[in-house]
Specification:
It is built from 13 helices and no strands. Helix 9 packs antiparallel against helix 10. The chain is elongated and about 55 Å long.
Length: about 240
């Protein structure tokens, strides 16, 4: 990984974190009582990303969610998921991500990476990092970031933005700013989403000096920065009003 790998070491990204069998069995024991058969119970978003799920993908999602132990899940992945077409396997993963089934999605993600047809895919890693970050599994998100580099992929602006947001969710402001710095060093220009996440979270944390610095840097990356900052202020003001109600 060269100099980039050294930077990762300095930021603490090379710490290995694995989901143990004990963690998985604990997850399944908690899930037995609340497992729902089928996909129609409770409010759901549309069951597709780029296309409608096939019946095979729907059955695979149900089977994964009904697995009662780590051993049963491994058996299901081998016998059920292993027979599906590539598109159906990826749709199964997407649906588990949509339902925020973190541990199950991670197992299917690892299954995908071991398939013969798999080629390193940045979008797959970005989606997993996003889900792990939203659920505050920061060490797992960092681990995936390292594996992504090891597979020959280079992070893009979305990767950096997802990790910045993930760090803010667990109040790791220093690491969020380090990731922002690494993003710029790597040649990626922060977009409106990145700058919005930085400004709003830094203001929330009352990091006044950092807020001023990031706002000043908007002029380097954002068209019409004054308009952009006014939009952020307007949105923040509305959110504060809602919080007071």
């Amino acid at each position: 990984m060269g100099s980039f790998g050294i930077q990762l070491c300095e930021m603490g990204f090379l710490k290995e974190v694995q989901i143990s069998r004990r963690q998985l069995n604990s997850f399944f024991s908690k899930k037995i009582e609340k497992t729902v058969c089928g996909l129609r119970n409770g409010p759901r978003k549309p069951m597709w990303r780029s296309r409608v799920l096939s019946s095979e993908a729907i059955q695979a999602v149900q089977s994964v969610k009904l697995a009662k132990s780590a051993d049963k899940l491994e058996e299901m992945l081998k016998n059920k998921l292993g027979r599906l077409l590539k598109a159906d396997v990826l749709d199964t993963l997407n649906e588990l991500q949509r339902q925020n089934e973190v541990h199950l999605a991670l197992k299917v993600f690892n299954f995908v990476r071991n398939e013969e047809w798999y080629t390193p895919d940045l979008s797959l890693f970005n989606s997993m990092i996003m889900m792990l970050g939203k659920n505050k599994f920061i060490e797992m998100a960092e681990q995936l970031f390292v594996h992504m580099i090891k597979e020959g992929l280079q992070p893009d602006s979305r990767t950096y933005t997802e990790l910045i947001g993930a760090y803010f969710r667990v109040d790791l402001i220093e690491k969020a700013m380090e990731m922002y710095k690494l993003m710029k060093i790597s040649g990626f220009c922060p977009d409106k989403l990145t700058m919005s996440i930085l400004i709003r979270n830094l203001e929330k944390a009352e990091e006044k000096e950092l807020v001023v610095r990031v706002k000043n840097e908007c002029a380097n990356y954002i068209d019409y920065p004054e308009k952009f900052l006014k939009e952020i202020e307007s949105t923040n003001f509305k959110r504060r009003l809602i919080d007071l109600v």
